Amino acid sequence: MVYSGMTYASVNGLELYYEIHGTGEPLVLLHGGLHTFDLSFGAMLPELAASHQVIGVELQGHGRTADIDRELSIGQFADDVAALLKHLGVARADVMGFSLGALVALELGVRHQDVVGRLVLAAAHARPDGYHTDITDPSAWATSTRMPTADDFAEMAAEYARVAPRPKDFQPFQQKLSAMVASSKGWTDDELRSVAAPTLLVIGDHDFVRIEHAAQMLELIPTAQLGVVPGTTHAGLLRRADVLLPMVAAFLSRS
Known about the structure:
By secondary structure, the chain is an alpha/beta fold. The protein is about 40% helix and about 25% strand.
């Protein structure tokens, strides 16, 4: 039976929004920063749900999940997702994340290895130096060709306004999230070597993430593979479903 529903789970003091589509092996989808589940994965959902039980999550402060008086951290996000899987009775799931969601997926692979089957990390970096300098230097944002456009930010704000419990929180939460990302130290080489899940790394060739850094992650994560999508920015990566979906489907097929 195909289940399609939208609901909340009480986990770690948070009312965490999730939705489930399709049947098959469980696949958790984790959106990008300031995105909703729909904004990150809406275009890919029909094909993914045709072969998997897709569990779409909206992390603390994102989309339909209201922010609470709790520090933001990648570790806390990962703990929330692990708690959701326990709540749903899902012993193990594949996990695909984009950008912020990919960092959460990587943390799941480090700290909750027992619940992770396979990992797809789209536009993930392991440390701050994994980004190009025009991303880490605010004075370079105005001229950077890698940064999201004004239209991208407008789309995020509009989607937040459409579904968030408190639409006025968008700007304050954006600042809170930016501070969290800026303070994140990432993972050590030993932590990356500890990832047991087969892992697919995917970046655009004009991404936030340096290709050299993705190659270092490839060497450190024991069973990693790397795909570089040509002519593609960070914000544009999920728009390349024509390339991503066959790559992800082949990786998750376990053939």
